[in-house]
């Protein structure tokens, strides 16, 4: 998801940024389209050469095949020069298959993010030394955290790619690489309102790492597309067996569906002192780190005035409340009073495989305080079931990775009920009067008084989609939800 800004505040600089982004997106679209057309042809050629040089007659042919793979692979990226310069110097001889180039590209990305993290981690760095503004200092702190998350996601992608066939873990790779890119862009966005020189420095520190992350994502997307088109799955199988993670054992899954979770909870939090802890944050401190076993926390009714962070080391946590209007977490951090958007969330989730049920999250800062997030999720495979999320600007910050919401009070677009409070024009431009033609917005088979699309804005980017296109956005295809959502007990329909 892109950045969140105060609507209606437009200046020239912003317009320029927007224009630049628009151009970049256009470029991405064009690259995307041309790569689809070429993918099959080029990929076949590359594989043809690789397999004919598989025996002992090598020599010049090898170099040729290296050049071919490299060209094929770098051609699909947005930053071709970076691609050639980084991979070309490493790949000097021998046969290199596209998937090996992909792994190499991820290693380069990892090392560049690691290097960037060093710059930001250097507290004595002259650029960051004289900072006094609290929001800028917080933005810098956020960058350190965000780059840490980017490293984790690249690292997970690498181990996943090493241990499994790339095609078997394609959706994970795509999700995590995309998240790694989002984290770096969020770091940059934290400096959007600050002085230009500082922002330029931040952008330059992240130039290599963002480019290599983007390239890696483009390469794996291309490999997947080409291999699927040509049915080359067999060729891409790795010698290692597939060790795709089992998110939840079926026995455990059954338990969650049948037992009264509140009675089974590992930890009880209650404001009135009838539980082990009075604050959710205190309970979370005692959740084991990186646990593969689920920890269930029951939070009894009451309003909990605290800002909660589910840290990235807290895996497989489930929080269950007494109802979306009975157990409420409440905070009021906001942008106007000096907190970057990323840090305003009342409830922020970084730990993977999180589940919340029957809970309310709110930010009470009010509309005058601009960005003030109630719930932010930056973790992979998070489920929210019967939750209420309440605030003004940026109520829900669905930051990165795969997330599922069911029977929650916020917003929705597909096969959903839209009430009469939905403005008939449906969509607002992000800023100014620019009606973006490069966005992809779609409404599909919604019902209710607000569902008619007759008077919607006439933007190129707002599309009428077919069932076939809608299939891409189903739980099965878009979220790979069959693997992980049932653990929450939330009902869902996996395809259209
Ligand atoms: C491979 O590419 C490099 C530069 O891109 C070129 O100098 C070299 O001659 C090429 N080798 C072969 C065998 O095509
Ligand atoms: C990547 O993960 C491995 C363990 O899987 C760890 O040893 C290594 O330090 C990690 N690297 C980074 C840069 O986080
Ligand atoms: C991946 O494989 C390496 C050895 O190739 C092993 O050391 C590592 O533990 C494996 N990681 C996972 C997540 O299975
Ligand atoms: C970015 O990568 C290039 C080589 O591709 C290198 O010359 C340059 O020093 C790198 N920049 C930073 C900031 O690390
Ligand atoms: C989890 O890890 C953090 C830091 O890595 C440590 O401070 C904390 O004590 C650990 N918590 C538990 C419950 O092991």
What does this structure look like?
With 496 residues, the chain is of the alpha/beta class. It folds into two domains: 12-236, Butyryl-CoA Dehydrogenase, subunit A, domain 3, CATH 1.20.140.40; 250-410, 3 Solenoid (Pectate Lyase C-like). The protein has helices at residues 12-52, 60-75, 80-90, 98-121, 126-129, 134-163, 170-189, 196-205, 207-230, 233-236, 250-258, 261-264, 280-285, 467-471, 475-479, and strands at 267-269, 295-299, 302-305, 308-310, 317-320, 327-331, 347-349, 355-363, 375-377, 382-390, 396-398, 403-406, 441-442, 462-463. Strands 1, 2, 3, 5, 6, 8, 10 and 12 form an eight-stranded parallel β-sheet that branches. The protein has a four-stranded parallel β-sheet with strand order 4-7-9-11. The longest helix has 41 residues, at 12-52. 37% of the residues are buried. The model is unreliable at 1-18, 22-63 and 238-249 (pLDDT under 50). Bound molecules: 2-acetamido-2-deoxy-beta-D-glucopyranose (5 copies).
Question: Can I get a quick summary?
Answer:
The protein has 496 residues and is an alpha/beta fold.
Query: What is the makeup of the main sheet?
Result: 8 strands, parallel
**Terminal CA distance:** 24 Å
User: Low-confidence segments, ≥5 residues, pLDDT <50?
Assistant: 1-18, 22-63, 238-249
Gross morphology? globular
**Which percent range describes the beta-strand content?**
5-15%
Report the radius of gyration as a whole number of Å. 24 Å
Q: Which structural class best describes the helix and strand composition?
A: alpha/beta
Helix fraction by DSSP (H/I, runs of at least 4): 40-55%
The first-level CATH class of the largest domain is given as Mainly Alpha
Enumerate the distinct ligands: 2-acetamido-2-deoxy-beta-D-glucopyranose
What's the total count of β strands? 14
Report mean pLDDT, rounded to a whole number: 81
Counting copies of identical and different chains, the oligomeric state is single chain
Q: Count the domains.
A: 2
Count of DSSP H/I helices: 15
**CATH topology category name of the largest domain:** Butyryl-CoA Dehydrogenase, subunit A, domain 3
**N-to-C SSE string, H for helix and E for strand:** HHHHHHHHHHHHEHEEEEEEEEEEEEEHH
CATH architecture of the largest domain: Up-down Bundle
Q: Going by CATH, what is the homologous superfamily of the largest domain?
A: Invertase/pectin methylesterase inhibitor family protein
Keywords: Aspartyl esterase, Cell wall, Hydrolase, Membrane, Secreted, Transmembrane, Transmembrane helix
InterPro entries: Invertase/methylesterase_inhib, Pectin_lyas_fold, Pectin_lyase_fold/virulence, Pectinesterase_cat, Pectinesterase_inhib_dom
Family: In the N-terminal section; belongs to the PMEI family. In the C-terminal section; belongs to the pectinesterase family.
Protein name: Pectinesterase inhibitor domain-containing protein
């Amino acid at each position: 998801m892109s950045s969140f800004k105060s609507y209606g505040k437009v200046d020239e600089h912003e317009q320029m940024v927007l224009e630049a982004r628009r151009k970049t997106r256009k470029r991405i679209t064009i690259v995307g389209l041309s790569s689809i057309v070429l993918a099959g042809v080029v990929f076949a050629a590359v594989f043809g050469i690789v397999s004919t040089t598989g025996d002992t007659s090598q020599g010049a042919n090898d170099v040729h095949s290296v050049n071919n793979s490299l060209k094929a692979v770098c051609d699909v990226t947005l930053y071709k020069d970076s691609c050639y310069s980084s991979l070309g110097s490493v790949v000097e001889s021998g046969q290199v298959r596209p998937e090996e180039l992909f792994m190499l590209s991820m290693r380069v990305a990892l090392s560049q993010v690691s290097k960037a993290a060093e710059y930001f981690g250097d507290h004595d760095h002259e650029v960051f030394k004289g900072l006094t503004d609290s929001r800028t200092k917080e933005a810098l702190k956020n960058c350190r955290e965000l780059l840490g998350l980017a490293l984790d996601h690249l690292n997970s992608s690498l181990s996943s790619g090493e241990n499994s066939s790339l095609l078997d873990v394609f959706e994970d790779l795509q999700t995590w690489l995309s998240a790694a890119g989002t984290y770096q862009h969020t770091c940059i966005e934290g400096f959007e309102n600050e002085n230009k020189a500082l922002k330029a420095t931040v952008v330059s520190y992240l130039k290599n790492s963002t480019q290599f992350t983007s390239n890696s994502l483009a390469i794996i997307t291309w490999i997947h597309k080409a291999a699927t088109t040509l049915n080359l799955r067999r060729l891409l199988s790795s010698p290692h067996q597939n060790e795709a993670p089992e998110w939840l054992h079926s026995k455990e899954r059954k338990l969650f569906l049948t037992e009264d979770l509140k009675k089974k909870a590992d930890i009880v939090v209650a404001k009135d002192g009838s539980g082990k802890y009075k604050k959710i944050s205190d309970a979370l401190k005692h959740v084991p780190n990186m646990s593969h076993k689920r920890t269930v926390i029951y939070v009894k009714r009451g309003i909990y005035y605290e800002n909660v962070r589910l840290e990235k080391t807290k895996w497989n946590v489930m929080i269950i409340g007494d109802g979306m209007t009975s157990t409420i977490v409440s905070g009021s951090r906001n942008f106007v009073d000096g907190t970057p958007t990323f840090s305003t969330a009342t409830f922020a989730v970084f730990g993977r495989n999180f589940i919340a049920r029957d809970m309310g999250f709110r930010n009470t800062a009010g509309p005058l305080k601009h960005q003030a997030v109630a719930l932010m999720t930056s973790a992979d495979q998070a489920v929210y079931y019967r939750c209420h999320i309440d605030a003004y600007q940026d109520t829900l910050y669905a930051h990165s990775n795969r997330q599922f919401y069911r029977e929650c009070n916020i917003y929705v677009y597909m096969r959903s009920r839209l009430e009469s409070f939905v403005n008939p024009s449906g969509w607002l431009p992000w800023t100014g009067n620019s009606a973006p033609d490069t966005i992809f917005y779609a409404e599909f088979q919604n019902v209710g008084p607000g569902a008619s699309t007759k008077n919607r804005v006439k933007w190129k980017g707002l599309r009428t989609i077919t069932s076939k296109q809608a299939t891409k956005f189903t739980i099965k295809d878009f979220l790979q939800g069959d693997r992980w959502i049932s653990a929450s007990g939330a009902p869902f329909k996996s395809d259209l």
